[in-house]
Predict the structure.
Amino acid sequence: MKISRRNFLKLSGLAALSGTLASKLGCAPDEPPTPTPVDPTPIVDDPEELWIQYAQTVHSICPICGVGCGVLSYVEDDSIVAVDGDPDHPINEGTLCSKGITLYNMYYVYDEKGDPVVNNQRVTKVLYRAPRASEWEEVDWDWALEEMAQRIKQTRDDFFEETNEEGVTVNRCPAFVWLGSAMITNEENYLFHKFCRAHGILNIDHCARL
Ligand code: SF4
């Protein structure tokens, strides 16, 4: 049934009037229950007794996806004791999604009793596997960065193509493949994309296609 605006207002007035009459005649429905007042007593009497009271707060970025939410890690005795969203971060303003809120579990695994223990599988050093080698070896950052720079330069020098077979300008280097990472932010991915274009890299991919 189509109701005009005028009829809608008339019906609304009638409904309000009949409600008032019913109330006066004592046949109005029961009043809705009064909500239980919220107990204003703080859960923790003394905020100084919070379990992170002795922890150092470290500002960081969630490494799980390219949104790049701000994270506060609470560190005590070189161990993370809690993780929370950073309320001052402009992207997430203190919130974390269901993945980000479990960041704590990237640092720990659980033993057979269900107690958290530091995850010793985390890669914390630079590992290098030489061509045709079967084992990884630990190297330092200075060596790794220098080696990467040398190889990128050599590959570009050897394989850069200014024109294709028809003489059309292409400025490309098909010998490179670049894989991005969801563990870097949108802005970092933007810079990496610029880096690829400057080097003529065409083969670019990323698990989230950023
Ligand atoms: S995984 Fe969640 S908390 Fe982490 S950056 Fe992405 S959206 Fe933010």
The radius of gyration is 31 Å. The mean pLDDT is 84. The chain is about 25% helix and 20% strand.
